[in-house]
Specification:
By secondary structure, the protein is of the alpha+beta class. It has 2 domains: 50 residues, Rubrerythrin, domain 2; 133 residues, Yope Regulator, Chain: A (2-Layer Sandwich). It is 19% helix and 23% strand. The strands form 2 sheets. Strands 3-4-5-8-7-6 form a 6-stranded antiparallel β-sheet, sandwiched between helices. A hairpin with a 6-residue loop joins strand 7 and strand 8. The longest helix has 16 residues. The radius of gyration is 19 Å and the shape is globular. About 7% of the residues have low confidence.
Length: 200
């Protein structure tokens, strides 16, 4: 199994000296509290390296990007990149940056037909996801930004993608104290929520 954050590999033939896991222990036998010895990512963020869907998705969008160049929605400061993919409750979830959109991508059920939408529930809230299938690679896409002209470079896009995943996958913060003004508790749209990541 491979860490979905730093790509450290857990090899059962070797074990993990730092966590005092001897050789011969399968990944599935590790306790739920197990974490990556390099970056401390939790166990559920490990992926099977044989899963090539992420690489295939990136290659499919790189081919599409060649046709998008020169169009008004194309941001030449960005490139196609997969960010932060991890296992989450039976699905594989991460972000995909392209020069014309930034989406959260989900591999796993339910997968509607291309163009049809479903609602997905995560610890950070409920989101509408659209079925997509470039080059036959079926997945769900949660649109965060499209177009992405506000993103000044790849590092900024990567930071927004990482923070967006955190907001979606982690539980919301505790309710503010009762003396907090009620106006601060109003519900915001997803665009407004993620818009804050751009300093807007």
């Amino acid at each position: 199994m491979e860490c979905g954050v730093c790509w450290w590999v857990y090899d059962p033939a070797v074990g993990d000296d730092e966590a005092q896991v001897p050789a011969g222990v399968a990944f599935e036998e590790l306790p739920d509290t197990y974490a990556c010895p390099r970056c401390h990512a939790v166990k559920e963020r490990f992926l099977r390296p044989t899963d090539d869907r992420i690489d295939r998705l990136v290659e499919a969008y790189r081919a599409i990007e060649l046709r998008m160049r020169g169009l008004p929605v194309h941001n030449p400061r960005l490139v196609v990149e997969a960010v932060g993919f991890r296992a989450d409750r039976g699905s594989l979830i991460g972000a995909l940056i392209t020069p014309w959109f930034l989406n959260v991508v989900v591999f796993g059920p339910p997968l509607p037909r291309e163009g049809e939408s479903v609602e997905l529930a995560f610890r950070g809230g409920r989101f509408e996801a659209m079925g997509a299938s470039p080059d036959g690679i079926a997945h769900l896409a949660i649109s965060l930004f499209s177009p992405v002209g506000e993103l000044v470079d790849q590092a900024a896009a990567r930071a927004v993608a990482t923070e967006s995943l955190r907001l979606i996958l982690e539980p919301p913060e505790e309710t503010p104290p009762v003396d907090e003004p009620r106006s601060a508790l109003r519900t915001t749209s997803r665009r407004a929520l993620f818009g804050g990541l751009l300093g807007g």
